[in-house]
Amino acid sequence: MTHAIAETILSAHLRLRAISTHAFALLLAALLLLSVSTPTHADALDEAFVKLYADNFQQTEQAVAGIAASGAPHAAETLDALRDGRLFANADAKRILYKTTAGDAFDAMTGGKVDNLDGFKKVRINNGVRRALDAAMGALGVGAADPQRRIHAAHELFNNPNPTTLPIIDAQLAKEANADAKSALEEARAAIVAATPGAGNADALRAIEALAARGDKAAQNHIATLAAKRDDPAIRTAADAAIARIDRSLFLWGLAQNGWYGLSTASVLLLAAIGLAITFGVMGVINMAHGEMVMLGAYSTYAMQMLLPASMTNWSVPLALPLAFVVSAIAGVVIERFVVRYLYTRPLDTLLATWGVSLILQQAVRTLFGASNRQVYSPPFLSGAYHWGGLEITNNRLWIILLSGAVFAALLFVLHATSFGLQMRAVTQNRRMASAMGISTARVDMMAFALGSGVAGIAGVALSQIDNVSPNLGQGYIVDSFMVVVFGGVGNLWGAALGAVTLGLANKILEPLIGAVQGQIALLVFIILFIQKRPRGLFAQKGRAVES
Amino acid sequence: MLISRRTITGALGALALGASALTSFAARAQDTIKIGILHSLSGTMAISETTLKDVMLMLIDEQNKNGGVLGKKLEAVVVDPASNWPLFAEKAKELIAKDKVSVVFGCWTSVSRKSVLPVFKELNSILFYPVQYEGEESERNVFYTGAAPNQQAIPAVDYLMSADGGSVKRWVLEGTDYVYPRTTNKILEAYLKAKGVAPEDITINYTPFGFSDWQTEVTKIKAFGSAGKKTAVVSTINGDANVPFYKELGNQGLKATEIPVVAFSVGEEELAGLDTKPLLGHLAAWNYFESIDTPESKTFIEKWHAFTKNSKRTTNDPMEAHYIGFNMWVKAVEKAGTVDPDKVIAALPGTEQKNLTGGTAVMLPNHHISKPVMIGEIRADGQLDTVWQTKGLVPGAAWSPYLEGSKDLVADWVDLKCGNYNKTTKKCGG
Q1: pLDDT, tens digit, for every residue of B161-204?
Q2: Between A222 and B15, the higher pLDDT residue
Q3: How confident is the model at residue B70 (pLDDT cuts 50, 70, 90)?
Q4: Could you tell me the pLDDT band of residue B138, with boundaries at 50, 70 and 90?
Q5: How many domains does chain A have?
């Protein structure tokens, strides 16, 4: 009680002060009178501002609601500034000011420009204040001219239902022309009705309908709270039916979402493994340095980002694709010419030698770029997500799936429609016969190694967007890559694709069921058992031509 | 060709000079006190640990400029255990037995600390461990300058349950699969249940080190959080797996106002390479933030920028822990008048050192220190804004009162000379 009196006295004092300081200019005073001519605004604003001086988050939350409800002329700027940390309070002088994004300061009460910032402290906010701000700005944005802002405001209100905004929503709904905004507002209205126990039955049924149409978990919760407070059988049955319908559709969307995740994991596996399918398939070489080719590709992305001027940063990832291919392909050729070539008849030695090469490459990169992770920039088209029904499709994953498909198609084309591809397939099927037909097997080997390594480099560009770019990047993928190739059948692109999709889906089906760690163990056990039964994988090459 | 006598004497003289330089160098080398630095400079933990190596070099450099310790210069011996837990033990052995270091500052993950414990016990040396950890341990040879669960995990959960923190009712405990997250989550689960949280409102998920495909996990969090009760995520994810985790949070638009994520192992250093705009408002619980405005912290940051010649390098909580630990060790050595491990271990409890947040840390008899607890929200620029902090300093408790088998235990190396003294059976040994 005493507090309220103190507040009143304080606010009266504040206005008096404000008037006296501005009395020197008749024009200013007139302006000021104009701004306080609606005294309820100023009173409400005063009350809200007093709460800001306390530097207490819960008081600030109440202040936010007060400022929004005051209808004061600078309410929107003040709340905007508060959210961005541009609102400053001076508890001694009892003044609040906001800065614009350009850095100019204005008094939040009068809107006058302020030059002296002494004694002003930033008003601190936390998540609670941010939630209050979302709800308040939602109320302020419902009547905005831009339909996108109206939709955004409606979403905020849906998440933070605020019963006082119901009349504003109804007024906007009556004249709303944009279909998206209309349904968003209808949903917001439904959420508010669900949170108000006193709302009428007609309103409740309308709310259930709108929420059922939205069909997500949050809508289902709103229906449940709405039904829990009412005994009317009509509402109960409508609510139960809506909840059951949402459950069904959520289940189906959940399956689709898991399928999408499986596909996304599969695309990463395929990108990493398809280069290996070529080197392993064509030459039977177990290239333990394959993961490092991927790592080189990721570092090429980083190098491209460093080389490009700041204005072209958004192009660093697409431009890195050819660079990564060339860098990894050259590294592949060097390894083939200087190490692998001499060990073709000794597979175990190749394994050890290429493992050694992988360690050398890791250390080289560590020396060159440092041991800590490098931050690769994600351009806007590779960030964020796209919503489609109940599906959430993150953009980086979508592009990786597309890239993976493109690389697969390109490799199919090279293998089946070019003379080099023909030679490669011939060498894969029967090296000695191919050699007898005049094919330079040594040259085919080198080219195949370059191609496989180059594709691994492209995989590295993709991985730089979803994983850490560190010298150890490749190690995390080498085991998975071998799993895909061995499972799919050596020397067969379609086998690798099917292997990747199977393992990706299996991984993403197992993960929600038994956890990420156990899921990986289960997959490894499955592969071991599978190899016992079918040592040559899903698509084994058959016939006399197969070299044992 | 004639070789004059002068050339020969000259050559001999030069040789003698070289030899004497060599011996004097050797003599001087023996006059230094060696300090071992055992932090991963490569592998999945390098993202967090490399900075700690650098800060130790800075502290040693500074101490040398001020005359060293006991009139001797300090010499840093840096090794790289490469995020490889068994290698930590080997490198620790190398530091103590071969390089004869007087003290070791090192380790980040608890699994690495557990791996070196037998080495420090067997060879009787001292380890300063600078990272928040799961508690349930107090060793004679180890000094824990990071937070115990009662100095980080428990207050963080308390904050989220309060009205300021959003009155959270439902919890996702998300961690990397090793000893620290598993023990911490066990303590938190017991604590939450004691606070009346229903078992179905708690879910615990583990992922491997270096995990990168967070799509399913984040979707699971969202689904769990949409049950109509206010939900928060307590993250004990360690190392560089945090980068793709936060990227996925940002991409899927999981906002802190809806489901806040409070992290125990993510600080300024881990956030430095991330686009933090989508992460605005997510939380971290520590005992120091770079944004803390104290003269001590300012001087420390200035020195750090000058030492690294990089005004963009961030400071963080484990760096402060090393700062406190190192200065405590210096004081204890000066008090004991020797670097002999037994005497220094005896001298350390009771040592005081000003921390960077305006308080004074004390080394307690249980080998933990007193610390303030702070909860920070991630800002758009990657720094953390303190939204809550304890009034005074909280003494670190080695044994959690919320776990069966641990609540009867106390650690006291001054009077009881025991790290796990059982109050009910009055016996040392758990």
Answers
A1: 998 888 999 999 999 999 999 999 999 999 999 999 999 999 99
A2: A222
A3: very high
A4: very high
A5: 3
Specify whether the CB–CB gap between B338 and B118 falls below 8 A.
Answer: no
Same-domain pairing of A528 and A419: yes
User: Is A515 in CB contact (< 8 Å) with chain B?
Assistant: yes
Same-domain pairing of A146 and A109: no
Query: Does A371 contact B at CB distance below 8 Å?
Result: yes
Angle between helices A217-228 and A233-283 (to 10 degrees): 160
Q: What is the pLDDT of residues A221-242, one digit of tens each?
A: 888 888 887 778 888 888 889 9
Contact at CB, A516 and B211, closer than 8 angstroms:
yes
Q: Residue A141, exposed/middle/buried by CB under 10 A (0-12, 13-18, 19+)?
A: buried
Q: How far is CA B120 from each of CA B89, B115, B134, B371, B396, rounded to the nearest angstrom?
A: 9, 10, 20, 25, 22
Return the pLDDT at B328. 97
> Which amino acid is located at A211 in the chain?
L
Which pLDDT belongs to residue A542? 62
| Least confident range of A448-452, A544-548, B364-368, B378-382 | A544-548
Looking at the structure, tell me whether residues A305 and A441 fall in a common domain. Answer: yes
Worst-scoring range by mean pLDDT, A510-519, B68-77, B321-330, B365-374? A510-519
**Residue numbers in A near B166 (CB within 8 A):** 127-128, 131
Those of residues 7-46 in A touching chain B at CB distance below 8 A are none
CA dist., res. A329 & res. A336, Å (int): 10
Domain end residue (candidates: A106, A128, A150): A128
pLDDT value of residue A304: 94
Domain that holds residue A58: 2-128
Check residue A29 and give its pLDDT: 41
CB-based contact A261 B207, cutoff 8 Å:
no
Q: What residues of chain B lie within 8 A of the CB of A132, using their CB?
A: none
3-state secondary structure (DSSP) of residue B69 = strand
pLDDT score, position A504 = 92
Q: Tokens in use for B86?
A: 């068994």
* CA distance linking residue B343 with residue A104, whole number of Å: 61
pLDDT at A389: 76
Nearest residue in chain B measured CA to CA from A392? B252
- Tell me the two tokens of residue A287: 């290239």
Q: Are residues A418 and A450 in the same domain?
A: yes
What gap in Å lies between CA B222 and CA B258, rounded to an integer?
10
Q: How high is the ipTM of this complex? A: 0.79
Residues A222 and A371 in one domain: no
Q: Which residues of chain A have pLDDT under 50?
A: 1-2, 4-39, 548
Distance CA B152, CA A147 (A): 45
The span from the CA of B81 to the CA of B50, in Å, is 11
The verdict on residue A241 lying in a domain is no
Residue A268 lies in a domain: yes
- Is A235 inside any structural domain? no
A57 and A155 assigned to the same domain: no
d(CA A523, CA A262): 14
**Facing residue for B281 by CB, picked from A127, A261, A467:** A127
Interchain pair B244, A476: CB under 8 A? no
Boundary residue ending a domain (A105, A128, A151): A128
Distances in Å between the alpha carbon of B295 and those of A31, A299, B110, B298, B354? 45, 41, 32, 5, 12
Q: Is the same domain home to A329 and A213?
A: no
Average pLDDT over residues B196-220: 92
In this structure, how many other beta carbons lie within 10 angstroms of the beta carbon of residue A193? 25
Asked whether residue A361 falls in the same domain as residue A451, the answer is yes
Cβ proximity of A504 and A269 under 8 Å:
yes
- pLDDT for the residue A541: 67
Indicate whether A541 belongs to any domain. no
A175-178 — which CB contacts under 8 Å span 24+ positions? A176/A150, A178/A147, A178/A150, A178/A151
